[in-house]
User: Which sequence fits this backbone?
């Protein structure tokens, strides 16, 4: 696609290019997944023809990807020939030189990913090989959660066999793809023309019935106007940043005032557009109500809004100075993870009144409106949709890679051009779950999601400043939770996030429209291990439990050693989640594993000599019980979570997205021949969802969770039974565990009648029985329990939170 002109006007750099009508190849792949073989080959040949011309002229593209290949009038057109590099080199001068673009990790060659300065056209050949692979397979050959993980896979692994994924791919095409994806440039096609001719071989060898096909012409024109294509001037705000903002914006906290000081929990603050009032939730985190206070007249009495609606109210947002939108769930059993069930969006006056329903697409939980109110965005699983408010026909904008938990906390930039959101850990919004998360940004017009933070810490609550280029968020990246700022450029973050307000213990934040005020909830909480005997006939409340651990820490999960001497658990007492062990009968905790990333979910081996965990990178690690050694045993591209040992100690079950990096999390097992031996490659046992597995005591079965259904399978993956608890009135049911005698299955559940806690049922189903009743005053974390020697062990939460408002200074 040619660059016709460029220049500077009123501080903005601009360039002029043709406007090409049609879809991008990215749009086509997103809609259809795998494309027909012949069409995939044709598109690749046309792009190769254009690259051949460019390379002869000394131009290397460096950013060949589906989003930069336009499909116009049945032909492929390459877009974005080095605009980023042209801007860097030309500054305020004329941008007529086409040069090098920055590249996309999924498609760039290994040498480009390493930052080599001596790149030639063979880097584009590698990228085009990735594109052809994706057209045929429906997914790119190398993906991962971070740029580093993708680069490592390209350096160390061969691309998954294409004909295994799709056996209709001809051998000649498969061979051409493998040669284009060679790790060493000298082993690839040496010119784009060679690549195209290799595909021509496949094309010409096919038998046709309509006569010889005329060779397709390349529609890539670099010096003349495309027929029927109108010119348009594109002004990029990012270019203006270069000329008008040479230094980054420093955001600092000014005056801070406490708005609430009542006992209990006030959370999810939302500042009114002008920052004069703050709406927030008050009451139990599992069933809060909406309240409003003045953010200026401190001490103003709280207005608990009379909505005349029973149930749960969540996620307040101001739609104007006088109206608030929120989610209302009339079911007592609704949770943050089930907002598409019995929940709807409502709007009401800031001082109460009648709740008005807001029309939204079906299943549109966690929905957010643009600043001007004309557009809205929402997630369904890992898919981000947008729509025009006056024409609610959702369109798929992007798919989040990879999916750990549901993406959430959508935030439109004030100019409506970009969308920020959080990937993973949706429960944080109504609890103290401190699992690692990452923040992403995507162009509201489409494109690839770009990571703004890493995924090894808690990163939450993105909020834009008025310039639409700086983002504030909550993070524990340096230990205690604080508020950070980061500048967002066209390709992602510019520099490292900077501290705006340290040590605030913020839970979520909200910024006024003019960016001068920020509200946050100062959230202090503890989660420790408690225990009680497995109840007999009648349910026992969690208030009867006895403490096993104490102190200011957060514990997520635990496991008792086979000899009953130790209890291992994860704790954030040193900042990150590390692994500790403590004598079960009392004594000092001992640090077992201290890592730079979080470590979760310890599970003892049957011999008591090893502990298996999952880590902040989404991999499975094995740790010596005395902490003397540790190492990864599973590192699939997807998130590998919930490892559990088999009774013989020779296998570990876990759930993962496997090679897919997003979508369904199925059951996997990794095995070894002997204790201390090498681990084999992981094997996928189920293709359907199968979360948080547990082995039966005899090792003959595994139980796991498929959306309120207990699925029991053999160690080879054959389904023995499916027990659907939604048919028994449960709004949520998860964390299925065999009893120590193998006769029952325990699980955490929330019934539609309001009862919640730890339940029991027979291995073949039967009537559920409530054993441990959750006490909302000190809720059970995750409704999950570990049973050993006739006792339950579980984490109970203690929450305290108040609302604060700070002035922002720049």
Assistant:
């Amino acid at each position: 696609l040619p660059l016709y002109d460029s220049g500077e006007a009123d501080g903005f750099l601009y360039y002029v290019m043709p406007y090409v009508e049609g879809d991008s190849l990215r749009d086509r792949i997103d809609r259809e997944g795998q494309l027909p073989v012949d069409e995939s080959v044709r598109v690749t040949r046309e792009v190769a023809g254009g690259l051949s011309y460019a390379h002869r002229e000394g131009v290397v593209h460096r950013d060949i990807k589906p989003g930069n290949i336009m499909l116009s009038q049945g032909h492929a057109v390459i877009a974005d020939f080095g605009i980023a590099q042209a801007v860097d080199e030309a500054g305020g001068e004329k941008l007529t030189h086409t040069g090098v673009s920055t590249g996309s990790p999924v498609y760039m060659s290994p040498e480009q990913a390493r930052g080599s300065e001596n790149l030639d056209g063979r880097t584009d050949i590698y990228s085009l090989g990735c594109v052809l692979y994706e057209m045929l397979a429906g997914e790119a050959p190398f993906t991962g959660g971070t740029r580093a993980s993708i680069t490592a896979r390209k350096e160390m692994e061969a691309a998954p066999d294409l004909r295994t994924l799709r056996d209709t791919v001809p051998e000649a095409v498969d061979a051409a793809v493998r040669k284009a994806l060679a790790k060493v440039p000298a082993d690839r096609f040496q010119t784009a023309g060679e690549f195209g001719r290799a595909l021509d071989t496949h094309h010409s060898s096919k038998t046709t019935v309509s006569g010889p096909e005329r060779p397709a012409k390349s529609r890539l024109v670099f010096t003349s106007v495309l027929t029927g294509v109108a010119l348009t001037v594109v002004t990029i705000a990012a270019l203006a940043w270069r000329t008008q903002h040479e230094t980054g914006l420093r955001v600092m906290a000014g005056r801070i005032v406490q708005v609430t000081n009542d006992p209990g929990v006030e959370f999810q603050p939302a500042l009114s557009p002008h920052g004069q009032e703050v709406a927030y939730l008050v009451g139990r985190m599992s069933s809060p109500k909406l309240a409003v206070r003045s953010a200026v007249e401190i001490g103003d009495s709280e207005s608990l809004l009379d909505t005349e609606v029973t149930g749960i109210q969540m996620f307040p947002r101001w739609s104007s100075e006088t109206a608030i939108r929120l989610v209302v769930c009339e079911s007592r059993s609704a949770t943050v993870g089930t907002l598409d069930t019995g929940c709807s969006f409502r709007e009401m006056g800031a001082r109460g009144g009648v709740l008005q329903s807001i029309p939204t697409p079906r299943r549109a939980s966690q929905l957010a409106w643009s600043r001007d109110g004309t557009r809205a965005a929402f997630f369904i699983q890992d898919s981000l949709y947008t729509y025009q408010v006056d024409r609610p026909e959702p369109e798929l904008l992007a798919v989040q890679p990879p999916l750990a938990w549901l993406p959430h906390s959508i935030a439109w930039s004030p100019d409506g051009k970009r969308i920020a959101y959080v990937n993973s850990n949706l429960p944080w919004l109504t609890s103290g779950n401190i699992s690692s998360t990452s923040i992403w940004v995507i162009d509201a017009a489409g494109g690839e999601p770009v990571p703004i933070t890493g995924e090894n810490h808690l990163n939450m609550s993105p909020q834009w400043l008025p310039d639409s280029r700086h983002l504030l968020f909550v993070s524990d990246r340096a230990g205690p939770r604080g508020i950070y700022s980061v500048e967002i450029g066209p390709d992602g973050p510019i520099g490292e996030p900077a501290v705006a307000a340290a040590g605030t213990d913020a839970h979520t934040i909200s910024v006024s429209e003019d960016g001068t005020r920020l509200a946050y909830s100062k959230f202090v909480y503890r989660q420790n291990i408690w225990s009680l005997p497995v109840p007999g006939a009648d349910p026992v409340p969690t208030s009867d439990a006895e403490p096993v651990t104490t102190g200011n820490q957060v514990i997520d999960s635990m496991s008792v050693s086979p000899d009953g001497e130790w209890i291992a658990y994860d704790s954030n007492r040193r900042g990150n989640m590390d692994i500790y062990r403590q004598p079960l009968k009392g004594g000092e905790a001992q640090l077992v594993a201290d890592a730079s990333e979080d470590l979760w979910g310890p599970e003892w081996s049957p011999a008591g000599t090893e502990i298996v965990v999952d880590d902040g990178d989404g991999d499975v690690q094995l740790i010596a019980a005395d902490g003397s050694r540790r190492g990864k045993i599973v590192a699939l591209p997807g998130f590998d979570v919930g490892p559990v040992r088999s009774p013989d100690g020779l296998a570990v079950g876990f759930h993962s997205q496997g090679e897919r990096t997003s979508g369904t999390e199925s059951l996997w097992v990794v095995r070894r021949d002997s204790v201390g031996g090498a681990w084999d490659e992981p094997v996928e046992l189920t293709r359907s969802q199968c979360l948080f597995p547990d082995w039966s005591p005899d090792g003959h079965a595994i139980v796991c969770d498929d959306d309120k259904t207990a699925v029991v399978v053999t160690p080879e993956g054959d389904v023995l039974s499916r027990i659907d608890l939604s048919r028994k009135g449960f709004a949520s049911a998860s964390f299925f565990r065999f009893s120590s005698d193998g006769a029952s299955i325990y699980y955490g559940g929330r019934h539609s009648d309001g009862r919640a806690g730890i339940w029991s049922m027979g291995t073949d189903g039967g009537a559920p029985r409530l054993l441990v009743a959750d006490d909302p005053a000190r809720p059970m974390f995750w409704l999950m329990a570990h049973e050993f020697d006739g006792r339950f062990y579980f984490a109970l939460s203690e929450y305290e939170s108040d609302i604060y408002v700070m002035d922002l200074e720049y």
